[in-house]
Amino acid sequence: MDSPILATTDLSSYLPIVLVVLMAVGFAMANIVLTMLLGPRRAGRTKGMTYEAGMNPVGTARKRFNVRFYLIAMVFLVFDVEIIFLYPWASTFANLAPGSDQSLVWLVRILFFLFTTVVAYLYGFRKGVFKFD
Amino acid sequence: MPLPAPFDFLSAQLLVNAVVLFAMVHVILITVAYSVYLERRISAYIQDRLGPNRVGFDFGLPFLGFLKGMIGLGQPLADGIKFLVKEDYAGDRVDKALFTLAPIIVIVPAMIGFAVIPWGGVWNCPDISVPFTSYVIAGGPVLVAGASVNIGIVYLLAVASLGVYGVTLGGYASNNKFSFLGGLRATAQMISYEIPLGLSLLAALLIIGSLVPDAIVRHQVNNGWLILSQPIACVLFYIAALAESNRAPFDNAEAEQELVGGFHTEYSSMRFALFFLAEYSHLVTSAAFFTLIFLGGYHLPFIGLTSPESTGLLAVLVKFLVYFGKVVFLICFAIVVRWTVPRMRYDQVMMYAWQAVIPLALAVVVMTSFMVYFGKTALAPMMIANGGLFALLMVFQPLLPKYNPNRKLALYGSRFSPVGGEMVSTRPTAAMALEDRPVQGTVKA
Fold it and tell me: Where do the domains of chain A lie?
């Protein structure tokens, strides 16, 4: 019995994903609504206070935060976009004839692409983006 | 007779997809509930305790007394009911809309990721006749998975990284400093470990050359599991998957000694439970993902029923059980890791990602692309190449610049690391303190 690799490209094969998203949202909403209906409800002045280890809360949490998190997000963007570009390359590169001229062109191009990322990484490294203390 | 025009998109494949999804949502939720139980039992065993071993299914009713005990298997149900009847409380200064939205945004990506996992391989479906009509849906080979799309891996990656939004939002909406810091930490950690996750996956996909989940399993059936031919990428992937789902030893988002509960400090009842469920269903999904990429999916060597050639109903069931068994094994492994390895400090976690895991993953990708170029992607040359890379790493590693994060920072007024030239004395100066007066109760008679 032969069994072909089944991977459809038409849009209707994404219908089950819509279904599972609806199921997941339904599950989450139903749980929240149920606990709102079933649970008790009591308010109080001290009960509504923000938890700060038992002390009276000081100020708000909407404060400036360490710029390091911002830097990490920026570097993440560089790397993530790069990885997204690598996926289509990877799924095609493996199917080229090994050692052929076309394969070599693909390899060198992607190595240059990776090299630019390595330069960005080294720059970030020298600037101390990846140091945490 | 085939179906008429508005319904002719309904194929056997779509029907099987819907059935599998409906069944798997329940299977995953029950697995999640029982992996919490499993975690408590295994941690109890590791720490020489008993763990939950009393709650059965008798609900305190006398006529159900025979369901008592059951080594605590009723615990997840009891926990679930308790979560439902607890007060769903939001503090006064909380952003109510975002506060409610955050757990939903966390749980939805965690629950939809498994849709493309090929649980049962290919099934040769018979013709399905629609009841009470003469319409027949043509059978044929169908994929026993939630959705048979050709970009399965990209879908899995995309969905897995969506969970970070809920964590960020939960931390922000709580308007609590602990939550905010926990959310920031979790966000930075999750986005940092997404990169090695993607890169190590890329190293595996470079060998396979396809993004279709079923094709990945078939490649491993024919050429050996990828855990053997890509061991370094496999370890990196596992580390990144643990860090992505905020599991120990990377659970800094909820480091309770520092941040109380992290981003869900302010949450209670079912909204908290959704965060909790999301963590575990993330664990289940990443275990299934890992099984798919590195452990050969539903395949077991030397068992004919688990090869892609057998397409009967029995074969599908056996394949599902094999796949699920591997997932449960990986969950147990993650639990043992959690209770064995101590939590890493936050700066160590981040530096580990950026200074160790990401460069190594890049090196593995470059190594693999050279191997693919030379056409040496079989098991033996890949193992040699991995060994070579590992040896190179061991040689290269002592030459790297040392950076000691444990140095003392000079602090004004500190007795232990004073600012240069400063002399700090902590000897008491008040007259009363200098008096030699023993504390009450410590005087010897």
Answer: 67-126
Q: Give the residue from chain B lying closest to A48, CA to CA.
A: B91
pLDDT digits (tens, 9 = 90+) for B78-135: 888 888 888 888 877 888 888 888 899 988 998 888 888 888 878 887 887 777 777 8
Two structure tokens written together for B189: 């950690």
Question: Dihedrals φ, ψ of B8, to 5°?
Answer: -75, -5
**CB under 8 Å, gap of 24 or more: what pairs does B307-315 form?**
B307/B221, B308/A3, B308/B121, B308/B122, B308/B214, B308/B217, B308/B218, B308/B221, B309/A1, B309/A2, B309/A3, B310/A1, B311/A1, B311/A3, B311/B121, B311/B122, B311/B123, B311/B124, B311/B141, B312/B123, B312/B124, B313/B123, B315/B121, B315/B123
| Cα separation, B369 vs A109, whole angstroms | 12
Give the A:B interface size as CB pairs under 8 Å: 260
Integer Cα distance of B158 and B289 in angstroms: 13
Which residue, among B229, B220, B160, has the nearest Cα to B376 in the 3D structure? B229
With contacts defined as CB-CB under 8 Å, which chain A residues touch B176?
50-52, 61
Region of residue B231 (phi > 0: left; psi between -120 and 50: alpha; otherwise: beta): alpha
Asked if residue B329 has pLDDT above 90, the reply is yes
Which ipTM did the prediction report?
0.89
Residue among B122, B156, B151, B113 at smallest CA distance from B320: B122
The sign of the CA dihedral B209, B213, B214, B216 is positive
Residue whose token pair is 């993607």: B198
pTM of the model: 0.87
Q: Does A91 touch chain B (CB under 8 A)?
A: yes
